[in-house]
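User: Before I run my own analysis I want an independent prediction to cross-check against. Here's the chain; please return only the structure tokens and, at the end, one sentence I can use as a sanity check.
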Amino acid sequence: MGTPPAARHTKHRVVVIGSGFGGLFGTQALKRRDDVEVTLIAKTTHHLFQPLLYQVATGILSEGEIAPSTREILAKQKNARVILGTVVDIDLDAKTVTSEVLGRTTVTPYDTLLVAAGAGQSYFGNDGFAEYAPGMKSIDDALELRGRIFGAFEFAELATSPAERDRYLTFVVVGAGPTGVEMAGQIAELAHRTLKRDFRSIDTREARIVLLDAAPQVLPSFGDRLGGAAKARLEKMGVDVELGAKVVDINSTGIEYETQDGAHHRIEAATKVWAAGVQGSELGAMLAEQSDAELDRAGRVKVNPDLTLPGRPEVYVVGDMIALDNLPGVAQVAIQGARYAAKHLRARLDGKPAPEPFRYFDKGSMATISRFSAVASIGKARFSGFVAWVLWLAVHLVYIIGFKHRITTLLHWVVSFIGRGRSERTVTAQQILARNIIRKMSPDELPKLPVVASDHEPPAAGLEKDVRSAT
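Assistant: Structure tokens:
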């Protein structure tokens, strides 16, 4: 006869959107609550350690080492469930989250919602640039860039004219923040060190690597001293650093930028990397439309000091999605915010006073430039060179999830930093071509899960409502 309706949901239902640092740490912070059921909804099956994406793109690490399975991470947390799907709707009045994957729609009810959907790449209104200059926000981005970077050297080997060869041996990175600096440095190391003996018709050491940014400084958030040290190190490695350079156009063969004096310049380059600007998840606009919240220029949600959505105390927003006290879009903000939200929820469930408003504790910022060289800002201390690099290694090893992944990552770093080799140089045409083909497909052409008549049985009591499209 089934469970009586009144007894179906005796536990507090928490829905978490996103499997990044905010979503994962928020879920884990509730693991000791037997009175809570957590459902984590994510559009990928993995937790991504985004700060190391550039190492996947440049062949140092495999994607599995920085993107472990979310299910594996949460396997021992009995009150947590993971479901796959892209969130397409949030109904704050009905307290439901609707997600889709391959034509299958799932509606998940909640009592408390934690939104940690992160941020995407911003092209500042020029979304067409994405086809020619991929960003660095996902595994797909990193694998596509790996194919483009290593493929450029292969095509340079086939070039029949100096102009064609130079175009393939020119790499432009847009954005002089940590990601841009790290990408430019690693491409320089690839060209000048890793690949210099591998080709016969080209000298990879003749590759030109250009770092562009409209800002007047490299790593502006690190201060003048560390930014200057990073710029000097990049230039010593052969990277051309062009500051005060605003990108105005990109196509398949090059990139155009404008300098502060109004002059226009063009660089002929087959490979472009976009590491400038972020845009809050589109879910932010969805939340703002149904609440008293406002969005900032980057699409981030202006939340209350306790990280709740204005007018919706049962909804928390954390990580890169929030606009609060000029917090940076870094992993520690997401981690600390998620843990605070869980603490706030626990107090509410226990009938205790709410904790003090959220305060971010800045543990410092770090960026690598090349092997044995990095910059680090920790409190009032500033480090550069080898000491900063060792600190960077230690901190990043700590935050890689799982002992197995730490060991394999360390081994790959030994191979790459001490030797000349990079173990992840395999590329396929799919990595470069498939994403653009999928982008151009109409919704009717996209694949869907096969459905048969017996699939239309009603869901078990207490589970999500599944709505499937007949084919």
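Sanity check: The first strand starts at residue 12 and ends at 17.
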